[in-house]
Specification:
The protein is mainly alpha-helical. The protein is built from four helices and two strands, in the order αβααβα.
């Protein structure tokens, strides 16, 4: 089921298990996806800023689901 896959992905990205995906978590994911290539902090923060619907500096699970589910 799609929601279960999204939930599993969120908890994989939320490495600190805080219920939030922050810039550090997102940076780790991007490095993982790019074969270990370091992504600049500015780029990570810019991407997070585009995804952060509430402007709080992180994505919670509900934001994450909203971004990934088809509209």
């Amino acid at each position: 089921e799609l929601e279960e896959e999204i939930r599993n992905l969120f908890y994989h990205i939320d490495r600190k298990k805080t219920g939030k995906v922050d810039a550090e978590d997102l940076g780790e994911l991007l490095r993982e996806l790019q074969g270990g290539e370091r992504i600049g902090e500015e780029g990570v923060n810019e991407l997070l800023g585009e995804m952060d619907l509430l402007g709080v500096g992180y994505l919670n699970y509900e934001d994450f689901v909203y971004l990934l589910l088809p509209k």
